[in-house]
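Aim 2 progress update. The chain analyzed this quarter is reproduced below.
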Amino acid sequence: MLIRTYITICGAVQGVGFRPFVYRLAKNLELSGNVANTSAGVLIEIQGTKDIVEEFCRRVVSDAPEVSVIDEVKFQDLATVKDESSFTIIHSDSGGSKTVTILPDLATCNDCIDDISNSENRRYGYSFTNCTNCGPRFSIINDIPYDRPNTEMRKFKMCPNCQKEYDNPLDRRFHAQPNACSVCGPKILFIDTDNNPTPLNEKECLKLAQQSLTNGKILALKGIGGYQLLCAATQLDVVASLRKRKMREEKPFAVMVQNLETIKQICDVSEEEEKLLTSISAPIVLLQKNKSNKQKIAINVAPENPYLGVMLPYSPLHHLLLNNGPKVLVCTSGNLHDEPIAISNSEAQTRLNKIADVFLTNNRQIARQVDDSVVRQTEKGAQFLRRARGYAPFPIIHKKDYPNILSLGAHLKNTIAITTNNRTILSQHIGDLSNQEAYQSFLKIVEDLPRLYDFKPDIVACDLHPDYLSTQHALSLGIPVISVQHHHAHIASVMAEHNEDSSVFGIAWDGTGFGTDKTVWGGEFLVCEKGNFERWGNLMPFPLPGGDLAAKEPQRSAIGILYKLGLSANFNHLWNPNEVKLVEQSLEKNINTPMTSSIGRLFDAISSLLDIRQITAYEGHSAMMLEFCATNTDNSYSFDWLNNELDWRQMVLEILKDRDTGVSNGEISGKFHNTLVNIMVDSAKLSGLRKIALGGGVFQNRLLFEKGISALQKAGFEVLTPINVPANDGGIALGQAFVAGLVNQC
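Predicted structure tokens:
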């Protein structure tokens, strides 16, 4: 007896070869029916005997393509069967609710690498080779469903050979929307130092780019999600020139390395780190430098840093470029300091012409900027520092439905999010909104992401800080606004990932955030439940002379700490005595000296007091240097609680005593980190709660993160940490959505 079953599959199931997989499975089991892409996902009608249909239903989930992500499957038995004998793939349906998951851009698969490396293959040396298992997705899509007319490939008509592959369900390029070859697809173009395009073929353009890199030139390369700036990582003077032109004095550069074997010549690589490097997401992975440095990477690539951000080539063009050029390239965003990456050819020529010596561009447009993701592997799992290419816009799935919420994130490391039904779709990394270009990019993405999903918000969620541009934009939309305190959002972000809305003790440590009492928070202990929070405790506040300026000048935090202790600043050896006097006067008269409870600024103060760093070149610089110098020790400093306020004064006095009696900075830093771990455990015990959530940028500190989790778990606590979003402000939008959704349900 025949039965007919209707199957709805939601998730990342378009652009991953799901329909040909279904087709092959149905043919193999001799079943009839059809499969189609829709705006909601993949729809299947399957017909056959009951036992075979049931086998199909099991295998359509268990054997699904590796790069697909299934969020939900629904089965419905139909009342009637049809008179049919074949299984067909039918045309996509663009109607209905747009809930399908858009796939991130995927690294080139091994089969495509073989194609471009094989001189007998018609795609030999072709820079835009892809198939259903790899290639651009999010960076080229303009609408859902994911079909060629809805992508930036719509302008390139496939040649007969490519069309034949595209139409064949048994071919791995069946409905690979960016499918192309050198006959019909996009073309690369080399532009020389005089900004003259060179009318050469693909191989000649590539050769000129390789020669330029070998000869010490800086190359602007049009990549998958935007332009990148490349140069030989072994040439000290070239890297120095890139730093000067890009206005990036000391912040580490990432490198792109030809292959895994070469990476192991410069860095230690664990099994877990190798999996991250070679994954379809191909992020930048922070790796420990090894002592051999066989590739002789220039010291100014990542100065004073034991880690190096490393990635493997993830596009065909990257693979081809590294084949006969330098094996290790500095690979950084195509922008000036703090600006968004350039994505159009005209924009790149305008913004990058004073940085790059030569350009390797192409005639395929990029729909939206997508920067490289940055991940590190810790003893407690992978940790995102930046979530973009390879991961965005994968959704976070909730256990209940929420109203339509637009979340606009924070001011630094901004991302936005849209929440609909039971999922929050987080945007790619946008950046720091203090830069006008980044703010314009923010405005575009605020329009772009909702447009893709035909999303209309019922609520807009934003930060509590009235001066954040994201907050001001939220207030301008004419939609009901829910303002979420910054540190509450940090903890709520973690709760959202764990689908936890019961009581959680949140330890939220970061630089600064606007508190409900209008002071500067940053060392917070919160009791969070559903959409509400209570400030259980905080770091004892200290004055911050200069306000936001203190983030760039750690000695200001140090002077504020010393002033709170009633001690002389004694910073005359660092500043002009008149400047020190002005800062002290501002403290005496309480002029531009807000009080702060920030753990981030406490890190800055200790770094300054130990003379590790007095001026920062990038966010978190001094705290990182303090972390990196720490040696392994079991010792720690004293601390106390005054009405749930963490009293740090005795700790700092002991640090000063150690410093003045010749104890090494490494030992002091190790003891300082141990003290913070002790504070985490002690506060958790005092709270009376068993579930502890860690959030905020301070937990990017690997030493604190690993030791803190281990100590809390040893003490019997369940520890919740970020999984798929950053602990820093890149996760704020998710937390805002979670709070707004819960508050709206109350």
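The chain has a mean pLDDT of 93. The chain has four domains: 2-89, 188-362, 393-498+726-745, 537-720. These observations will guide the mutagenesis experiments scheduled for the next reporting period.
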